[in-house]
Amino acid sequence: MSADQNPTPASEAAAEAGRRPVRLTVTAALVALEGLALVVGGVWISVLGLTGHPDDRQQAVTGGVTLIVLALLPLLAARGLLGQRGWSRGPAVITQIISLPVAYSLLQADSMAIPGGIALAAVAVASLVLLLNPETTQALGIRGPGNAGK
């Protein structure tokens, strides 16, 4: 019999340690959702710039392309979070910090942007809480200050 067919307590512990916590999966999904929203917004602005009657067609297309390029940060971070890569927490946290002022500005609008601001603020705060959770930090292999040598 091989070790795969007859697991030992040590191999079960190793398998348990390699599992991705649910919090990390939820965080990755929220970050990916923000990235996908940026892609959709970028495509929307670009299409409106090309087919509509914008004041400045070049500015509309540039804004759309910029949003699509900006979507790479949260999408790559979400992929890294799913793969339990420690580097991915930084870009994910930066994305959430940038999202908070955007949500605030949407909340200040007198339009249909208010529900979007509420949703963005809720996702950003929930993601930050999950990203800074000790279980998430441990799953990503991030050590606190003073624990680098351990």
By secondary-structure content and strand pairing, the structural class works out as: mainly alpha
How much helicity do the residues have? Answer: over 70%
Summarize model confidence as the mean pLDDT: 86
DSSP strand count: 0
Principal-axes geometry comes out as elongated
What amount of the residues lies in strands?
A: under 5%
Biggest sheet statistics = none
What is the element string, with H for helices and E for strands? HHHHHHH
Distance between the termini: 36 Å
Low-confidence region ranges: 7-16
Rg: 20 Å
**How many individual helices?**
7
Secondary structure layout:
Blueprint (H helix, E strand, L loop, with lengths): L8 H10 L3 H30 L5 H14 L1 H11 L6 H19 L5 H19 L2 H6 L11
Helix pairs in contact: 2-3, 2-4, 2-6, 4-5, 5-6
Q: Could you describe the 3D structure shown?
A:
It contains seven helices and no strands. With 150 residues, it is an all-alpha fold. It starts with 8 loop residues before the first helix and ends in an 11-residue tail after the last helix. Mean pLDDT is 86; it is low at 7-16.
List keywords for this structure.
7 helices, mainly alpha, single chain
Give a short summary of the structure.
The chain is an all-alpha fold and 150 residues long. It contains seven helices and no strands. The longest helix is centred in the N-terminal third of the chain and has 30 residues, at 22-51.
